[in-house]
Specification:
single chain, about 475 residues, Rossmann fold, five-stranded mixed β-sheet, about 45% helix
């Protein structure tokens, strides 16, 4: 077992400047221990690797650092951190009885009120560790759910978080409430022991889950109506996706001149935000900021947030924002690709993704030069920039313009005074770049129209001015 200084780890994770906290008094923050546990076999396999791109595999230290960052995201006071290599996984407590006893003493000495085990604990393991340590225990999924619960602001976001939390909690009733082992008395003439308290509470949770799913189904239909409305307006949609804390919201604010919450914290953004922004040639687009992804993202969270994440499926362009200065940038990128695959974005769509390598302001000249060489080998279009300083953002806007212009034509048309319906169609399905109204009531328009819609345009008996 390796023990590291929690203060140093916290500062490194929470943005290289230390976590932003809001202390009212010296004892307001919950004291927590963070333990990253993994089998020794996983570490041996990693150490034996001779792959040149060691960046693509996370080290235990990086995983611990991320766990500390998650704890800092809900303002916990991380007093100690530990790396734990397990000879084998114990079904009852994950770790062996010796380690359980050792941590009992550490918890007492540090007066920790919460222990975060950065692993997937079964309900039995969680219950047994809480009993042994006499303190609250959270696994990785539980910690992420706590963060989501603290950050969700919109009604939709709160519904999604509650659904994920109840789904997670349903299997852990045996852990959560000690009174659940009691039985309610059944009716004497029915026979049998009657309904247990745990069964009744599990049934109540399931009823609540069913109600939430119905409410979210309504949300999904509402979002689909909004998407259908946007399809009628010729504004391309650009979705920002990426690992949590990669800088999506900072880039969103830079491009849209918006004020979306953008802090150096994991999961600073949960509720999606959309803004209209003009590109350099005047073309209006809709930019969408989405929730960040993370490794080992709980499947029930993906399911709960599917209605939100489906906005990505409707996007004309997906911009994958990466923190290129991060030591695990490649591994984080693979995690994002995995979640996109779960959402149904196939390989063909993923080849059309634009990658933004963000936070180049945190890199020295050698690191930048190395990244430039990697850029040349990427299968995606890549833009290196800093959302904080603005360096490289113009290159991104230029690339977006170029990508959206593919397959489009600029043509001049003349619309007669009686062709009001045709004029309306043009404004709904093309970009009007210029308009001149003539004395006879007709209008001469310079428009940009996508190739698939040119045929429809010509069928409307609208006069097209020949080129030249």
């Amino acid at each position: 077992m390796e023990h590291t200084s929690s203060r140093t780890s916290s500062d490194a994770v929470a943005g290289r400047k230390g976590p932003k906290t809001f202390q009212v008094g010296p004892v307001d923050r919950t004291r927590a221990l963070v333990i990253h546990a993994e089998p020794k076999s996983a570490r041996r396999g990693r150490d034996a690797s001779t792959q040149p791109s060691v960046q693509s595999t996370r080290t235990p230290e990086a995983k611990l650092q991320e766990a500390v960052g998650l704890a800092c995201a809900i303002n916990l006071d991380v007093v100690e951190t530990f790396l734990l290599s397990l000879q084998k996984m114990h079904p009852a407590t994950l770790m062996g009885p010796g380690k359980v006893s050792e941590f009992t003493g550490i918890i007492a000495a540090t007066q920790a009120e919460l222990v975060i085990v950065d692993a997937a604990l079964s309900p039995v393991q969680q219950r047994n560790l809480e009993r042994a340590w006499n303190t609250k225990v959270l696994d990785r999924t539980g910690l992420i759910l706590e963060i989501f619960g603290a950050r969700a602001r919109t009604k939709e976001g709160r519904l999604q978080v509650e659904l994920a939390h109840l789904t997670y909690q349903k299997s852990r009733l045996v852990r959560s409430w000690t009174h659940l082992e009691r039985q309610r008395g059944g009716l004497g003439f029915v026979g049998g022991p009657g309904e247990t308290q745990i069964e009744a509470d599990r049934r109540q949770i399931q009823d609540r889950i069913n109600r939430l799913e119905r409410q979210l189904e309504t949300v999904k239909k509402t979002r689909e109506l909004h998407r259908a409305s946007r399809r009628k307006v010729p504004y391309p949609i650009i979705a920002l996706v990426g690992y949590t804390n990669a800088g999506k919201s900072t880039l969103f604010n830079r491009l849209c001149d918006a004020d979306v919450m953008a802090e150096d914290l994991l999961f600073a953004t949960l509720d999606p935000t959309m803004r209209q922004v003009p590109l350099r040639n005047g073309r209006p687009v809709v930019l969408s900021d989405t929730v960040g992804f993370i490794s080992d993202l709980p499947t029930n969270l993906i399911a709960a947030f599917r209605a939100t994440l489906e906005e990505v499926l409707e996007a004309d362009i997906v911009v994958h924002v990466r923190d290129i200065s991060h030591g695990d940038s490649v591994a984080q990128s693979e995690d994002v690709e995995d979640v996109l695959g779960q959402l149904g974005i196939d390989e063909l769509q993923r080849r059309q993704v634009i990658e933004v390598w963000n936070k180049i302001d945190l890199m020295d000249d050698f690191a930048r030069e190395t990244a430039q060489h990697q850029n040349q080998r990427s299968e995606h279009d890549v833009v290196m920039l800093s959302a904080t300083t603005g360096e490289g953002c113009e290159d991104l806007l230029t690339l977006l313009d170029k990508r959206l212009a593919q397959g489009e034509r600029e043509i001049d048309v003349i619309v007669a005074p009686e062709q009001g319906a045709e004029l309306h169609w043009i404004y709904q399905n093309a970009d009007v770049l210029d308009r001149a109204d003539e004395d006879d009531g007709s209008s001469r328009l310079r428009i940009r129209v996508a190739q698939p819609k040119i045929g429809t345009l010509l069928q409307k008996d609208i006069s097209v001015v020949p080129d030249g």
